[in-house]
């Protein structure tokens, strides 16, 4: 399968615990996005990378959230001291940007986080 | 900042047409359209770039009015498989080579047999 993969697919944790999610984008894609989606709402942008550089970070992303893409390939999203409000589907997407051309984002299956 | 989509929901019979609109308050660089089925990730439908270039697949078309900062998605001869929630994704230039990207409010579409 050459699509975007995310791990784990489901995570149940207790409030106050730290969690880390992984995203493996399509191999030749240089852009990687993280979104959060709650029931009935559209994906909320969290952050994106171009190669290993984090270019934009939403104000929704509190200090408890951090994302990395150390080698410009896979990315991790960590949430520290989880709160019940963090419960959501976390989506990763990747795309290829060449010069000024922008291509579509391909989404992974998501990681569903439940904070008890 | 979130683009507003209209209508919020629409119910169609198979074979009928529908138009979904996306309005932004920003000068847009590109507009993307996605369809999301319940419990699944969004799937790309169409991208429209400033200057008129389009790229998409399936039997779906779209327009992008840069002056009005609006985009419309046209679904013709709808099929049962068109059911889902449609989102526009809008991208605009911020500064120093960076862009902001935000999804619209969504339109729920249901096609009945």
Q: What topology does this entry show?
A:
The complex is a heterodimer of chains A (116) and B (113).
Chain A: E1 5-7, E2 10-13, E3 19-24, E4 31-37, E5 44-50, E6 53-57, E7 65-68, E8 75-79, E9 88-95, E10 97-98, E11 101-102, E12 106-107, E13 111-115
Chain B: E1 4-6, E2 9-13, E3 18-23, E4 30-36, E5 43-49, E6 54-56, E7 60-65, E8 70-75, E9 84-95, E10 98-103, E11 107-112
Parallel strand pairs in B: 2-11
Antiparallel strand pairs in B: 1-3, 3-8, 4-5, 4-9, 5-6, 7-8, 9-10, 9-11
Explain what the structure shows.
Chain A is mainly β and 116 residues long. Chain A is built from no helices and 13 strands. Helices cover 0% and strands 52% of the residues of chain A. In chain A, the strands form three sheets. In chain A, strands 2, 4, 5, 6, 9, 12 and 13 form a seven-stranded mixed sheet that branches. In chain A, strand 4 and strand 5 form a beta hairpin. Chain B has no helices and eleven strands. In chain B, a hairpin with a 6-residue loop joins strand 4 and strand 5. The mean pLDDT of chain B is 87. At the A-B interface, strand 5, strand 11 and strand 12 of A face strand 5, strand 9 and strand 10 of B.
Attribute tags:
heterodimer, A: 116 residues, mainly beta, seven-stranded mixed β-sheet, 13 strands, globular, B: 113 residues, 0% helix, elongated
Distance between the termini of chain A: 33 Å
Overall structural class of chain A, as computed from helix and strand content, comes to mainly beta
Share of residues in helices of chain B:
under 10%
Query: Oligomerization state of this entry?
Result: heterodimer
Counted by DSSP, the helix tally of chain B is 0
Helicity range of chain A: under 10%
Q: Which secondary-structure class do the elements of chain B indicate?
A: mainly beta
- Please report the total strand number of chain B as a whole number: 11
Rg estimate of chain A, integer Å: 14 Å
Global mean pLDDT of chain A: 91
Shape category of chain B: elongated
Shape of chain A: globular
Low-confidence segments of chain A: none
- Biggest sheet record of chain A: 7 strands, mixed
